[in-house]
Amino acid sequence: MERMVIVGPGRLGLALGVALVQTEAVRSLTYYGRNPEPPSHPLFGRGLAEYHFGLARPDPSTTVLFLAVPDESLGEMAWALAALGPAESHIPALHASISISGDAMAPLHGAGYAVGTWHPMVGLTGAAEDGDMLERAPVVVSGEVAAAAAGRRLVQALGGRVLEIPVNRRPLAAGARALILEAAAAIHSVGTDLLMDAGLPADGAEAGAKSLMRSSGSHRAGPLHDPEEIDLHLRALPPRARELYRQILEGLEQPATSGPDHR
Question: In this model, does residue 29 exceed pLDDT 70?
């Protein structure tokens, strides 16, 4: 079981903590944050995790140090942690970015930490269900030997799948993630509005949209490949939804091999 230290009790940090507690993968869970008091969250309210204001050098018994901070703060946080002194037991230090250079973690590497990447390919909203999203999630894992091993160990504990992406192609993965999440958010918003326009109450429209989004991954060719259905939809949809519908149709008509050749 892990002795986990998480820097940053934000969406990812809290979701990861919840997922690890739910899967009984942690012996101890400690958070460091920039606010004097911990956030209002069951992890702290139920005594499942400790919270400390500021930073401290991790205890030598720590098995994983996880930096759950925004990309733009990663380098600063690495410097701050390294300034506290060298790692006493070559502790694996993981971060969640696949879109910035590993140079940001260089200060921790210099202080004796084994550094690596642990980036889940899911979208988190800050909702209570975020911990469930991380269970069985695919995760991009890489880094120095000890860090990658720790990252794979976390994925295994959560029942997920390890994804290995070469460093020079990670911007493609980051772009794909952003595109999919932003498109899904737009579709969810427009779809919910349409279901309300169709006569559903707000909570019913939200439930219907969420159900459709969850099942979309297993959906295959249907109404968007039927010309009569397409014409019917376009005539019925309001302007905002009609434009989004047309953009999706145009995307479906593009060759699957479009874009640069990365072989």
Answer: yes
Measured CA to CA in angstroms, residue 49 lies from 27, 89, 149, 195 at distances of 10, 23, 24, 41
On whether the CB atoms of residues 100 and 69 are closer than 8 A, the answer is: no
Is the pLDDT assigned to residue 222 strictly greater than 60? no
Rounded to the nearest 5 degrees, what angle is found at the Cα of 15, between the Cα atoms of 14 and 17?
Answer: 65
pLDDT score at 54: 93
Q: Any alpha helices (H) in 56-165, and if so which ranges?
A: 71-82, 106-110, 130-134, 145-157
Contact 93, 114 (CB under 8 A): yes
100-152 per-position pLDDT tens digit: 666 889 999 999 999 999 988 887 777 777 788 888 888 989 889 999 999 99
Residue 126 region, left (φ>0) first, then alpha (ψ -120 to 50), else beta? left
| Axis crossing angle, helix 239-253 with helix 227-236, rounded to the nearest 10 | 150
Of the candidates 198, 224, 220, the one whose C-alpha atom is nearest the C-alpha of residue 209 is: 198
In this structure, the number of other CB atoms found within 10 A of the CB of residue 224 comes to 13
pTM of the model: 0.73
End-to-end CA gap in the chain: 40
